Amino acid sequence: DTQRVLCSFQSCFVCCKMGASITCCKTGCDRTFHLPCAPDGECVTQYFGAYRSFCWEHRPQQALQPRPSQDNTCSICLDTVEDKISYKTMGCPACQDARFHRHCIQRLALHAGIAFQCPRCLNQDPFMMEMLTMGIRLSKRPPPQESDQEVVFSDQRHGRCDATTCLCPGGREHAEAIGPWKMWLCSSCAAKGTHQHCSSLGNSTCSWHDNTC
Q: pLDDT tens digits for 167-209?
């Protein structure tokens, strides 16, 4: 009860509203925040062990080597990522080459459960431990069936338009880098795709989510 009373007087440093119940665990730091505000404040909560939380200044950082290639695309959704590691852009500590958006790897972690692994090199340990340390939440669901696992983690990216009616003159497997026939993969499973025009996606579209996921 005392803790609830104290929390009601704590201000979230992200939204500035009262009722913040999470405090950065760094000694000497008194920043508090609401759990829903954590992404906007670039805060990290580790969903294992002591369930520690960190503000943007004291959150764990990835120590990755410079990227061997210049392919600045997410290994999951294939959209562009930042050219450096940040809160929103993460990487695999094993292959040092895979890059992905935080929200993409979080969705993949929840989908894969205990079979969670790097979408590029398929490393599971230390990849999983690194992701947990960086605040990625892992579901405890059993591994997916082999057929599902092959779809999610296969090196062969999905390259087919799954729209009910494909309007592309070149067919469902035709794809272009830009324009109406650009292929978009589902941001949740990366196992379904659509041409931009076939799902009436605008030129300003940043991601696409299949309604059946």
A: 998 899 888 878 888 888 887 677 789 999 999 888 777 777 7
Cα–Cα distance between 194 and 202 in angstroms, integer?
13
Contact assessment for residue 33 and residue 58, using Cβ atoms and an 8 Å cutoff: no
Instruction: Compute the distance between CA of residue 52 and CA of residue 33 in angstroms, rounded to an integer.
Output: 13
Which residue stretches of the chain are H helix?
2-8, 102-112, 127-133, 146-153
The three-state secondary structure class of 164 is coil
182 CA to centre of own chain: 22
Same topology, domains 7-59 and 158-212? Answer is: yes
Assigned CATH class of 158-212: alpha beta
CATH code of the domain made up of 64-143: 3.30.40
Class of domain 7-59: alpha beta
Q: In the chain, what are the domain boundaries?
A: 7-59, 64-143, 158-212
List the one residue out of 211, 192, 201, 207 whose CA is nearest residue 79. 207
In our burial notation (b when 16+ CB lie closer than 10 A, e otherwise), range 144-168 reads: beeeeeebbbeeeebebbbbeebeb
- Own/partner contacts of 174-182, CB < 8 Å, gap of 24 or more, are none
